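Encode chain A's predicted structure.
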Amino acid sequence: MNNMIPSGHKQTLIDLARKSIQLSFDENNAPLLNFDAYPMELKSILATFVTIKIENRLRGCIGTLDAYRPLVEDIADNAYKAAFSDPRFEPIVASEYKKLEIHISILSPPQEITFDSEATLLTKIQPNVDGLIIQDSTHKGTFLPSVWEILPDPKDFLRHLKQKAGFNADYWSDRISVFKYRTQSIDSGKIH
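Encoded structure for chain A:
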């Protein structure tokens, strides 16, 4: 995937995510930020996920799969929600703020994968590169490409993704749709 954001703007986006979280402590809700000051290339309509870790442990992760608002707004809102609204975790407290490791994933538009079986699907997935979305009826789940670090085997990756979406690990149906996407990643500790 081509980098959608020039490297000179990566720190700006990390700072924006941090500011969204930090201001929330003062305002006790999602902060109202002025997005007019940001350059046009940071206002492209793009989907993002913001992942927060403390000491390399997941502390929150929220994002959007469908691009519908400017990048800076998506990052600010997802940072706020990852810190305070991820239902898997207690909200971040002020004493944790300086320990936060922030990771931003900017998603390419999802592309549907055509396949006639699970075996065929597995041949069309590129480990360590593709993020996946799986859905069938009202069940839907996604894994970012970074999940390959934990689940490097494509079969395991797919089984766990099915479970995340609410299916059995062995579930299969002709109605399953799978989409792949790639990400541009920005880490708070790795700005180049």
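The chain has two domains: 7-107, 111-181.
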